[in-house]
Amino acid sequence: MKNTFGQSLQTTIFGESHGPYIGVVLDGLAPGIEVNDDFIKEKLALRRPAGAISTARVEADEYTFASGVFNGKTTGTPLCILIPNTNTRSADYDKAGRVARPGHADYTAMCKYHGFEDYRGGGHFSGRITAAIVAGGAIAMSALEKKGILIGTHIYKLSDLTDREFSDIKNDISALNKKSFAVLDEEVAEKMIKAIEDAAKDADSVGGVLETAITGLPAGVGEPWFDSVESILSHVLFSVPGIKGVQFGAGFDKVCERGSNFNDAFRNEDGKVVTATNNNGGINGGITNGMPVIIKCAVKPTPSIYKEQQSVNLNTLENADIAIEGRHDPAIIHRARVVVDSVCALAVYDMLAARFGTDYFTQE
Ligand SMILES: Cc1cc2nc3c(=O)[nH]c(=O)nc-3n(C[C@H](O)[C@H](O)[C@H](O)COP(=O)(O)O)c2cc1C
Question: How far is Cα 53 from Cα 199, in angstroms, rounded to an integer?
Answer without folding.
Answer: 9
